[in-house]
């Protein structure tokens, strides 16, 4: 059965292109590859430019800044380092409706009545903020010494009325790096780093974290059940515990200075 005319033309075109390609010189083929590579690079650059445009809009547009400020704060918090305190200063005006924030230079901090008090180291959120789709009820910032340990422990983070499991589910969708948290036997989700004298080393076994006095400096991100009756649900906490070197503490918690 003869092929339809359109199919014959298509086959003829394909054959012609294949013949031209086979007849092309090595220089011509190299030039085509270079042109294809340049087009791919241009496409990738356009994607980057669009992303940067959106970022610039979030930085410069007051409405966009107001909307993105709580999300940016929680994103920065998840690294358990100085990033959150820099974001708090950067977005102080936008966050003022939710938290009392003090700044010194490029460092900001959410104020609590007394870091050293078991009953006054937290503050309620105002205007029921949502951070990365997570309802937030309060913030805490505590410095305490456990038992006979000589090194204080530093805890800071947020309260949400949701369960630890639901909190983890929501945050891991918005912050893919949190998928690396490991569930322990008590239903908490933990990321544990230990200081080896030069840098932080990620521990693969979260059960080694018990929130007890330790002779080794540890940095912890944990999602677990809240221990505060005024803030039922879940706490999302960062912790520095054990003998954290002074310079390291200053770099991670510049707000303490």
TrEMBL record:
PROSITE patterns: PROKAR_LIPOPROTEIN. It comes from the Bacteria. Keywords: Signal. Residues 1-24 form the signal peptide. Residues 44-58 have a biased composition (Basic and acidic residues). Residues 44-66 are annotated as: Disordered. This is Lipoprotein.
